[in-house]
Amino acid sequence: MISDNSAGVQDATGEELERLYRDLDALDLHPLWNITGELLTETPRPKAVPWLWNGAQLRALGERAIDLVPVERGGERRVLSLGNPGLAGRPYAVGTLWGAIQCLGPHETAPAHRHSPGAIRFVLAGSGVWTTVDGDACDMHPGDLILTPSMHWHDHTNGGTESMVWFDGLDLPMIEALDGVFFEEYPEFAQPQPATRNVSEVDHAGHPGRFRAGAVTDELDPRSSRLLVYRWTETDAELTRLAAEADQAPVSLEFTNPESGASVLPTLSCSMHRLPAGRPTEARQQTGNAIWVVFRGEGHSVIGGQRFDWAPGDMFVVPSWIPVEHHAATPADLFRLTDAPVLRALGIYRERALDDPQPVTTTFTARTVESAPIPATASASATASATASATASASASASGESL
Ligand SMILES: [Fe+2]
């Protein structure tokens, strides 16, 4: 009968289709027609979520790590990386960017190495530290930006008597995604100290191409900037000049490669944003990810309709295409790291301003841990354990690593 035959054909088709899917799965093949919507999204759908890490907590935990964990070969650095809760436990602040706080106690040196991922340092507090970059000892002060470009040897030394903390930003997640990560230890624990310091800074002193108002829009350069240090005193002066020209409206500048006018690294854009109290920025969407570091002042940002209150030392992230606007309650300076040069090089950078401020639907509460005193027994046990670990480590270093 016709109806029976028709049902038979449908059953056969259903079974055959199921077999097709099973066979595709067995051969690791994915039928695009079932996943088009999840791959080709109308707009970017970053897995990372807007988030904020409290600066006071970062600093307190960094100080605890200084007391408990030595800096040595193998671990290389005393760094606390920002892990975005949307990234399933990966140690990345957003999909393409590493963000972290690095801490160095008095008279400590973090050993010399180099790697293909490029890095930048933005100093938050402390004095007496320098980073030696391919033999150039670059002094570090609060507000300074220091570059350690791809495959440049670098070590950090604290020659002072107080701890220093700084923000570390790297392109590590994107270099990892490109399967391009290389890492090498320097043959000695640290590079030789040169007689003349801050050579790149002296070579580019007063160069007008160190900054540009707003952001780089056209220039691209596969080479990193040869200027390795951007001093806060000069950044501050330039922001003051720009704010005066703008009738004290919010202003920003991007740090640039003096030779080409491009962003400081081929993968990373660094910029500073001066926000006067009571004059919010417009809401904007940009492709690519951003990490913001609060250097000075208090206020809040609205990110995707969520309010994030911030204070000095706080770090927050704005994943791709999520609208953001900033409101300073006191005069504020914010540092920003983005992957914009990569998106511009690929021709997929987009940016737009929203017509209206975003309505605030929720307020973010940063996670905190109580800094309750450690019980005496637990404290003694932890100290003994750390000492044993440090001793074992020192022993291994003496027998293996060149110190
Ligand atoms: Fe490094």
Bound molecules: fe (ii) ion
Q: Extract low-pLDDT stretches.
A: 1-8, 372-403
Label the structural class. Answer: alpha+beta
Order of strands, main sheet, comes to 1-20-17-22-15-14-12
Full CATH superfamily name: Jelly Rolls
Strand content: 25-35%
Number of strands: 24
Question: Which CATH top level class fits?
Answer: Mainly Beta
Oligomerization category of the chains in this entry: single chain
Description:
- A hairpin with a 2-residue loop joins strand 6 and strand 7 (136-140).
- The protein has 8 helices and 24 strands.
- The radius of gyration is 25 Å and the shape is globular.
- The chain has 403 residues and is α+β, with helices and mostly antiparallel strands.
- The protein has helices at residues 2-26, 36-39, 55-68, 172-177, 199-203, 232-245, 340-345, 376-399, and strands at 51-53, 79-81, 98-104, 109-115, 119-125, 129-133, 136-140, 145-148, 154-158, 164-170, 183-185, 211-213, 229-230, 251-255, 269-275, 284-286, 290-296, 299-303, 306-310, 315-318, 324-328, 332-338, 351-353, 362-363.
- Residues 1-8 and 372-403 have low confidence and may be disordered.
- The structure holds fe (ii) ion.
- Residues 113, 115, 119, 154 line the site of fe (ii) ion (FE2).
- InterPro entries: Cupin_2, GDO-like, RmlC-like_jellyroll, RmlC_Cupin_sf.
- Keywords: Dioxygenase, Oxidoreductase.
- This is Gentisate 1,2-dioxygenase.
- Residues 382-403 are annotated as: Disordered.
